[in-house]
């Protein structure tokens, strides 16, 4: 093929003069151009495969026939494109259907996070918290003339003496807010840095008000402390998990992660199991827990019990958003049922497969969850607007935690921002897409008394021995321990999948059906039309060019004379060839080949 | 006449060339391409210019490839299901509700059987934890046991000794019975060194199980003494209870009248006769409501807690076995009437002195079986025999599989599950070392080495009741004053004591609403849909139809091979003729004598003299026509060629 394309002139000249010899198959050129439009048209009419078009264009005897065929043709074409439009409109809306399917494969046991709801006093902040406690007492006394004394003060009396002074904003105190409606409300006042803009955080109950108020000061104090989150639970005096068994075997230390949450106390995350698990209580996790009601911070944590949260592996547990409590003195059996949601993602919807592609930098060192994204987004906005980070959320790099010692007006700023988040005025919900794969855990629980009165004595004695602490000395023995069993309830789990209504093969099939129905042609027919078009363009250029060139010579019938077309095409001047060469795309290719083969013979 | 007509006429003239008569495959192809209705192929033949032809060949092949690809995709997605969720609002059948006391047998009755075991457990507790020294009463009892100890030989501790051993020196075991240390030479199953409970004592409790020849031993250790004692107790308990006949066990457990203090269903009073007995090995007598044979299944007319089942249960904590069960309350399971209640696996617990409300929501699921999924309709095609007298479920299959394997490997059946035919429960009179075998087998089962998980398949249809539990203090301080005396008076025959608040539990089970959610799978594709999609694909790319597919089969498979066969036949004939001819007067230079049967053809007439090696045309008449056909085109070509010469 290459040698023909290069078109050695001598070779062609040698061939052309031979007049009457049958054209050899080998001698067939790369692309042969029709000599006239008429011939081109005739060829097309003979070999076209489009049904209506042939009748319209190629039968020219009867006008009525032509008109009726034309109408039919236009009608069919219109109907076809109308239907195409409907079909494609539907397709480009990317509709999805949710399909629920039931599977029975074994599932990974989810991660379980347990917190003892009993935050302890960090050693470094002990003095500060004591000052705060005194201030709290003073506040409550001034409101209710009620004196609540903490026996803890006696405990830490010795290390009370030489402590560095620190800044406790005594301006922020609990106040009784008289309302015109007559309802008494309790709250505290927060102002911005200039003091011009102030608002009250008001609560109808003094209990919530005191807790919120205490927490605000507590966060301020902790923010000033060097970060001791990791090691602090060691000083706390040990674990609150007496025993842990998974699938009838002792849990291993590596299955557990521990951390200390400022408001939820010591937390354990059981995360170690990577193998698929079976349903049933005997295959679940069983824990005996210490649920001590000796509060270290009585104003902060008011509940006794264990907070449990079940979440996916590698997900950050947000105990403040989910999780439920376990009552002391009971055995709680929690059955898990898992539902999975798979989303298709773009173009069918908005979801993310991971951290990539989300314009919020995730502050948690865990896999993507919507909650983690929202918190990260909030913290970043907080750093932007208040120039410091909220203590209970992780810190972005280069920022510091808020404390009124450093940022006097942060509370005002924080509560404003938090309200905006609540009323969806922050862009966070739009910046955080849902994850494409989500698991939700449905829990159903049952409780029984544990330990039973008959077995309590030996069980508590044995546990006592293990912990080296006296459980049985407190008045109600049972209220210090709790047992939790968490297991998979079902062999079956459901997945909700988004599936596209139209898959590409189905769309093509539908289009093909329509096309065949209305028009009786195919993709190849379109290519035929395209070929016709290209041929026509090439021919027009060729003839037009030659006509321009020969205009002074006034050759009669140059364009129409079918018999004269070929030699004249062969005698194309070189500038014509340049003309045709400038055509882009396949048209350029074909006409290029055509002009080369014909022009070559000239040179 | 228009040139198109002329060509048409020529083509018509050429039509007599039929597929099988075409002399060569090339001619056949040519003929096919000119006459077929399929788009693209014709263009290959009629196009002029090699590049054009090549392009058309490429286009056509691409279209064919696309058709195959897309149709393959359609076929691949044929066995998908579409799921429809229907919510019916109707009168719902109430499920069967099985209620068990957590404690299996009245301790006062079983105590005779378990006295030795209890005594030894107490001794173990004392030795390991110094437990009974807490109170003076206990100490006295313990002393009396200790004195009793001197006389009898310990039976259970000897069989499966409880041991405490320190973590530092693995291999060193302190047998608390003898008090002396001894070398432990066995496999430690649970590595205690990296157990999570690292903060306290270095001692870990466990027990040792050995196989029949006692060369293989496994040490099971527990980081918590509570678990160790309970597991150890349970082992012996099962051994003892395995030898007790069923009737005796039923008598030892609670009667329906005893367990159910009051009963109310759908606003109508009910009693013990509405419950059927179901004996569970580990939970004793359980009672199933709404499961009576030869009776219609009860249904609720309304949703809400007023119209469900309301029972007050007598828990009787006094009769609890202190070592076997550590919690007190009852267990409830909601299941289908023909389903086996796996109370130990998925039961919901009920707390005494509380009112537990359980709201139900019914979901039915129907799956399509083969070839859409692997589920089984009734378990008859699963190679595991169902040892339960209940409908097939995956859970039943797994348990049956394990129990069958247990009988196979250990020679006896595990106490928790029903007995397979011709087997009996394990006890160490007959099977001294079944426990080691069981533990090993259970480990293998969990690791999926037994193949049960691979063999068992899920059931195609199942009902599930989603339960929502809520708790309330019951009875309230005020109502307690009148409620407890009345109930005590009511139960005078059954319970010979004053009822306490913690002896009772109230249970309400009801439909939250009468909505039934059905998740039904149906085939997403029917064969008509598939065919119409095929038609669409064929039409889209090539404007092809079934007829053209048949045509292709005819031409490409039948004619093609018939031409090849004919040519081979002729070749063979020629070869035969040449092989036999040489001796005779062979006129090799005379082509007219070549084939006697065939009349002289135009070609043979023209080709005088033919080259010696040329192929002799097979069927001359088509050759004629094809020649003419060629001329039709060459004449057309000459039209274009003529002018330069003129």
Automatic annotation (TrEMBL), chain A:
Keyword Disulfide bond: no
Reaction(s) this enzyme catalyzes, per UniProt: Na(+)(in) = Na(+)(out)
Reported function: This is one of the three pore-forming subunits of the heterotrimeric epithelial sodium channel (ENaC), a critical regulator of sodium balance and fluid homeostasis. ENaC operates in epithelial tissues, where it mediates the electrodiffusion of sodium ions from extracellular fluid through the apical membrane of cells, with water following osmotically. It plays a key role in maintaining sodium homeostasis through electrogenic sodium reabsorption in the kidneys. Additionally, ENaC is essential for airway surface liquid homeostasis, which is crucial for proper mucus clearance.
Region (Disordered), start-end ranges: 1-20, 556-578
Pfam (any one): ASC
TM helices/strands, residue ranges: 40-57, 69-88
UniProt subcellular location: Cell membrane
Origin: domain of life: Eukaryota
Bilayer disposition of the protein: Multi-pass membrane protein
GO molecular function: ligand-gated sodium channel activity
Name assigned to this protein: Sodium channel epithelial 1 subunit delta
Keyword Cell inner membrane: no
Gene3D superfamilies: Acid-sensing ion channels like domains, YojJ-like
Organism classification: Eukaryota, Metazoa, Chordata, Craniata, Vertebrata
GO CC terms of this entry: plasma membrane; sodium channel complex
Species this chain originates from: Ailuropoda melanoleuca (Giant panda)
Keywords, sorted A to Z: Cell membrane, Ion channel, Ion transport, Membrane, Sodium, Sodium channel, Sodium transport, Transmembrane, Transmembrane helix, Transport
From TrEMBL, chain B:
UniProt-listed Pfam families: ASC (PF00858)
Chain intervals for the UniProt region annotation (Disordered): 579-625
PROSITE patterns associated with the record: ASC
A GO molecular-function annotation: ligand-gated sodium channel activity
NCBIfam families hit by this protein: ENaC
Family per record: Belongs to the amiloride-sensitive sodium channel (TC 1.A.6) family. SCNN1G subfamily.
The keyword Lyase is assigned to this record: no
Membrane topology recorded in Swiss-Prot or TrEMBL: Multi-pass membrane protein
Role this protein plays: This is one of the three pore-forming subunits of the heterotrimeric epithelial sodium channel (ENaC), a critical regulator of sodium balance and fluid homeostasis. ENaC operates in epithelial tissues, where it mediates the electrodiffusion of sodium ions from extracellular fluid through the apical membrane of cells, with water following osmotically. It plays a key role in maintaining sodium homeostasis through electrogenic sodium reabsorption in the kidneys. Additionally, ENaC is essential for airway surface liquid homeostasis, which is crucial for proper mucus clearance.
Protein's name according to its UniProt entry: Epithelial sodium channel subunit gamma
Localization annotation: Apical cell membrane
Provenance organism: Ailuropoda melanoleuca (Giant panda)
Gene assigned in the entry: SCNN1G
Catalysis: reaction(s): Na(+)(in) = Na(+)(out)
Gene3D superfamilies: Acid-sensing ion channels like domains, YojJ-like
Residue stretches spanning the membrane: 54-79, 538-564
Gene Ontology cellular component terms for the protein in this record: apical plasma membrane; external side of plasma membrane; extracellular exosome; nucleoplasm; sodium channel complex
